[in-house]
């Protein structure tokens, strides 16, 4: 009996807990660059990229070749037992790429959540303080500490009780929704007045462009004032670049466009082209605040994932993918804005590089987020052969994270499907 999506979904329901969500009732069988083929042989255009993991596309031949070569050497020793050069080489390259005119060191781990957890550990050890300020709409992971930092209860921490204490929430600036730079800075000052003295705050953590929160871009003037505020009070600034990093925004790290640098930077997702590696890069003096044995993990910085990440960095340079990122972003934004002119439900089309969002509202009213239409577009697009994602605090944002290696003809096909969906649904 041949496999079908329906039969596999039945097996999944019986074997996998319901807490592991699934956006599309599809089982992938194979993939290439920016397309995915399911178990029934149907091909889909991939505008999701594994949630920003495949900036270099599915199965990039140079990345696969690097992994295959590493497989002939070794797959695991645990770096804390027996070291290997790819780990060190990747750290050297990340140190050179993360913005900041200071000596850096890098820790490698396995997941984005783990990177954020370690960034907080490092900040606490370096400052002798425990508090952390995060922002509304933030997404930093699903582990216990990162759930506390994440600014969305449902579905991430619903039913789990209160998350760890010592975390305070400030407003993320968003002109579209009436939160100015002044408002956001004032909200941090309110934390200092109402909740915790600055001397009790180890770090402020921020996404330069919010991911799950809706792809809102932090204004440069806000980032500069945030940097000054941190310097004034001896607070470390953590840039969570898990989703924005590895070239998604048109620079290898989004903070390169913000006019300031962070003390600690987290990265993961696209850094290894689909293989699991993540990390924290920061000022050497802060990174060295924890004694030997306080950082690491059994699988942290796997030789295979390090080989993949080194290949990703080479591919970005050889194929000029940062330039391609801008071209992809401009191509898609132009097409989406043309669709917007026909449908007042599209309240905003925004992007930094190729990190693109379409925000939907009822009758164009910015006070009425349209989650129902957003979900309907995602489902209709799937029926037409396009994989999309939604996001946002109110679930009313469509996000596009297509591989930067996608051909223009594929981008146009995706735009045409989105256009059809709005014509039929809006």
TrEMBL record:
Belongs to the class-III pyridoxal-phosphate-dependent aminotransferase family. The keyword Transferase applies. This is 5-aminovalerate transaminase. Pfam families: Aminotran_3. GO terms for molecular function: 4-aminobutyrate:2-oxoglutarate transaminase activity; identical protein binding; pyridoxal phosphate binding. Keywords: Aminotransferase, Pyridoxal phosphate, Transferase. InterPro entries: 4NH2But_aminotransferase_bac, Aminotrans_3, Aminotrans_3_PPA_site, Class-III_PLP-dep_AT, PyrdxlP-dep_Trfase, PyrdxlP-dep_Trfase_major, PyrdxlP-dep_Trfase_small. Its cofactor is pyridoxal 5'-phosphate. GO terms for biological process: gamma-aminobutyric acid metabolic process. The keyword Transferase applies.
């Amino acid at each position: 009996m041949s496999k079908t999506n329906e039969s596999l979904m039945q097996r999944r329901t019986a074997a996998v807990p319901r807490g592991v969500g699934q956006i599309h009732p599809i089982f992938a069988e194979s993939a290439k660059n920016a397309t995915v083929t399911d178990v029934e042989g149907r091909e889909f255009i991939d505008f999701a990229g594994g949630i920003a993991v495949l900036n270099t596309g599915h199965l990039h031949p140079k990345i696969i070749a690097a992994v295959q070569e590493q497989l002939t050497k070794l797959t695991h020793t645990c770096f804390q037992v027996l070291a290997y050069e790819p780990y060190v080489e990747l750290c050297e390259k990340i140190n050179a790429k993360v913005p900041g005119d200071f000596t850096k060191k890098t820790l490698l781990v396995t997941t984005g959540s783990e990177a954020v957890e370690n960034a907080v550990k490092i900040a606490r050890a370096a400052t002798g303080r425990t508090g952390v300020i995060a922002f509304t709409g933030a997404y930093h992971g699903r582990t216990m500490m990162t759930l506390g930092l994440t600014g969305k209860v449902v579905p991430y921490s619903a039913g789990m009780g209160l998350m760890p204490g010592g975390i305070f929430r400030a407003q993320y600036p968003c002109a579209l929704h009436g939160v100015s730079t002044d408002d956001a800075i004032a909200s941090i000052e309110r934390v200092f007045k109402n909740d915790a003295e600055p001397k009790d705050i180890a770090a402020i953590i921020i996404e330069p462009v919010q991911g799950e929160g809706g792809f809102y871009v932090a204004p440069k003037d806000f980032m500069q004032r945030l940097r000054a505020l941190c310097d004034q009070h001896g607070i470390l600034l953590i840039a969570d670049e898990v989703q924005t990093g590895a070239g998604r925004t048109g620079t290898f790290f989004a903070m390169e466009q913000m006019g300031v640098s962070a003390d600690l930077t987290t990265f993961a997702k696209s850094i290894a082209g689909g293989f699991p590696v993540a990390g924290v890069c920061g000022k050497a003096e802060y990174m060295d605040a924890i004694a030997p044995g306080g950082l690491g993990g059994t699988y942290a910085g796997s030789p295979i994932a390090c080989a993949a990440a080194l290949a990703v960095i080479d591919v970005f340079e050889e194929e000029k993918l940062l330039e391609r990122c801008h071209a992809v972003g401009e191509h898609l934004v132009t097409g989406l804005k043309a669709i917007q002119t026909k449908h007042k439900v599209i309240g905003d089309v925004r992007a930094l590089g190729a990190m693109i969002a379409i925000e939907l509202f009822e009758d164009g009213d910015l006070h009425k987020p349209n989650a129902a239409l957003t979900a309907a577009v995602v489902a209709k697009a799937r029926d037409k052969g396009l994989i999309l994602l939604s996001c946002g605090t109110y679930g009313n944002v469509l996000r596009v994270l297509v591989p930067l290696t996608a051909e223009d003809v594929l981008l146009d096909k995706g735009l045409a499907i989105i256009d059809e969906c709005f014509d039929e649904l809006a």
